[in-house]
């Protein structure tokens, strides 16, 4: 396997870790496999394979399932990629999304892209809003939002900066999982800014933007 996305836990170098890369690649190419099948394909022992699988399970990249071979026979334990594991392989979703948005703009006008993204923002606000009640302290709400964003690949953290005895919250995204889209459709970034303001219940100001060549997306909260 030659490409790991930023959202995937880093796998250190070395022979052992290269074996784990090969293991992930086998599961990806050949579907759910037993530890015995993987050991035979890797040409390593079954106990060693199970150790690698255990490490990958801890990283959230593979999961164990119980299946019947071809729907018959005795149940057996097999290993499959999790959604996070699937994310370790290159995808072309960004290219597809850009093409779709271009067609939306061409067919229905430039403002149609804004309306589509506004609808998406409204849905996200409904889904996440229940986990960010107004009764929560501001920094807790920001932390919950950062956690959700990190699960989506943004590698988000909250900075609490104290100046002159006054604390300021910053939501910082150290990765943009939709960079190709954001560069061509700034409406996406505008929609995200609106979403964060709605979820946090206060003014949110973007100070830096990855799509503009800066190192992170940094939002001042409040």
Automatic annotation (TrEMBL):
Pfam families: MarR_2. Residues 13-90 form the HTH arsR-type domain. This is Helix-turn-helix transcriptional regulator.
């Amino acid at each position: 396997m030659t490409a790991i996305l930023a959202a995937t836990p880093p796998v250190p170098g070395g022979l052992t870790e290269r074996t784990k890369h090969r293991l992930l690649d086998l599961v990806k190419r050949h579907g759910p496999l037993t530890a015995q099948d993987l050991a035979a394909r890797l040409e390593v022992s079954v106990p060693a394979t199970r150790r690698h699988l255990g490490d990958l399970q801890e990283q959230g990249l593979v999961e164990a399932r119980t299946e019947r071979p071809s729907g018959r026979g005795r149940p057996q334990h097999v290993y499959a990629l999790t959604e996070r594991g699937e994310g370790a392989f290159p995808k072309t979703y960004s290219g597809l999304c850009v093409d779709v948005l271009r067609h939306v703009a061409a067919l229905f006008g430039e403002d149609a892209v804004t309306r589509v993204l506004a609808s998406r923002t409204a849905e996200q606000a409904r889904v996440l809003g229940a986990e960010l009640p107004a009764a929560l302290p501001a920094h807790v709400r920001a932390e919950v939002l950062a956690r959700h964003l990190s699960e989506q690949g943004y590698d988000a953290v909250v900075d609490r900066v104290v100046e002159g005895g006054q604390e300021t919250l910053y939501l910082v995204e150290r990765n943009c999982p939709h960079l190709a889209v954001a560069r061509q459709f700034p409406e996406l970034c505008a929609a995200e800014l609106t979403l964060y303001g709605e979820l946090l219940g206060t003014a949110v100001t973007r100070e830096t933007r990855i799509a503009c060549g800066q190192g992170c997306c940094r939002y001042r909260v409040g």
